[in-house]
Amino acid sequence: MNQKAKTYTGQTIFSTVTAFTALILICGCSRQDNVDGEQRFITIKGSDTMVHLVSNWAEDFMRRNPDIEVSVTGGGSGTGIAALLNGTTNICAASRKIKKKELDLALQKSIHANEIAVARDGIAVVLHPDNPVTELTLEQLSGIFTGRSLRWRDLGGNDEEIEVLSRESSSGTYVFFQEMVLKKQDYKQDAKLLPATSAIIQSVSTDKSSIGYVGLGYALAAKDKVKILAVKTDDKSPAVMPSDDTVKSGRYPIARPLYFYLNGEPKGTVKTFIDFCLSTEGQAVVTDTGYVAVR
Amino acid sequence: MKAVWKEKTIKLMLFSMASTSILIVIGIFVFVGKEAGQFAIEPGLKELLGSRWIPVSFQKESFGLLPLITGSLLVTALATSLTIPFGVGAAVYISELARPTEREILKPFIEILAGIPSVVIGFFGLVVLVPLIKAGFKLSTGLTALAGAVLLALMAIPTVVSISEDAIRSVPASYKAASLALGASKIQTIWKVTVPAALPGIIAAIMLGIGRVIGETMAVMMVTGNAAVITASPFESVRTMTATIAAEMGEVAFGSIHYRALFCVGIVLLLATFVLNIIAQKVLKKYRMG
Fold this sequence. Notes:
By secondary structure, chain A is α/β, with parallel strands linked by helices. Chain A is 42% helix and 21% strand. Chain A starts with a helix and ends in a 6-residue tail after the last helix.
């Protein structure tokens, strides 16, 4: 029995060694492929919210640099940061800041997590143009969307029932709004879930008593059909209209920066890619995708 | 000898083609059942009996199917009650009363209606029908079960018309002749003789129409508001089973409880259409025999 176990261990060690040798050989080969010593393959992993944006960047970038391949995968910001710490991705896309715990882990692994803000995500709250309400606090918004406030009259509007419109639960915006505005509470049960941003704009523009939320880019494009609400962080703070400027400066409360995290300073092909994302063309992609540019 | 083999091979090939659809149906049941079965183990089927469907939550996720089932039932019942008078009425007119030129115009248009993609119908519903319902019934929003039912009726009517028309036409001319000879008027003959004689075919047509209504997704998703509430009012928003699967399957984490819950919704839907189809087949068979 003992003998058998020993052989087994021996075999395991043998196969592990073989696997490693093979791996080193493969890595060596692929390095040799790069004649000029430049990396030809970039991997980006992380936030599901950013997948659409990052893929658009990657497509544009690959069109300009046909010899470089950029692979984009989602999985969530947490997954992306874990991959960066394990060295399995070049760039991590994250829709939140890196946590203290993750930073400690990075230091242990002597990885210097370098943060670059590449875009901003802002969400506008929209109303029917005839609704007399022009500003609400985050607290009041939370009340509306969780079902604590039911009538517009209590918020300075007409004596009508509030019709709450939301995106489908599969949308990243749904989760972000739930986190930022509802403070992680559930949406009210009879909130209407619409399958697309365009459906929300369409409904808000026809229903006088409805309220909904959409990405800032879409709201600004539909400015003449719906009213965009000014939002106050609390009772005392001033009401802020969402715009590229207020989202960029952080004064508009329902917004967040979107980050790239990488190990150390960007260099080589990774630098070329990030430079492209922050360039005028790259930031135009941001606006086209419905987010707010940072530069 | 060679010719026999050739014939056998061709026969086998044709047999395998014909039986592919059976294999696919069995395959779908097995696959969907397997995923849904894992839900029965963890967290258990009791979870499905709840009255709240909250699949994404920071507090506690709930996977109660009741609001989805009642939503589908309400929309289907409303759509059926709209489809029957319009569908059967149109079939009677086209087969019994219409002049040949009228028929030449009516039939192709009804067939075109059957061919319009459901997204297009849904979009039409969102832009035209929803505001109309809101204004017509003085509601705060037109995103209601009624809006979904009207669109579904639009999609089911062509099926009902063309199958019931076939049934009405295949009523033997001698029945009608006998009725007219007894002094019955044309309208009396239609309602007392022709339609009752064609009834099994008409019922089968309605069943197939309902089958289409239950399974339809896109148009309903665009106009019913998709709020998962239990209600019997046509003026409330409802969330159907099909819309739930379509809206949530795209982003759900593979293998999660939510993912398996969606397969459970699929099983319920599959069983519903399966039973309806079997009933329709039975009724149709009876009518062919008679």
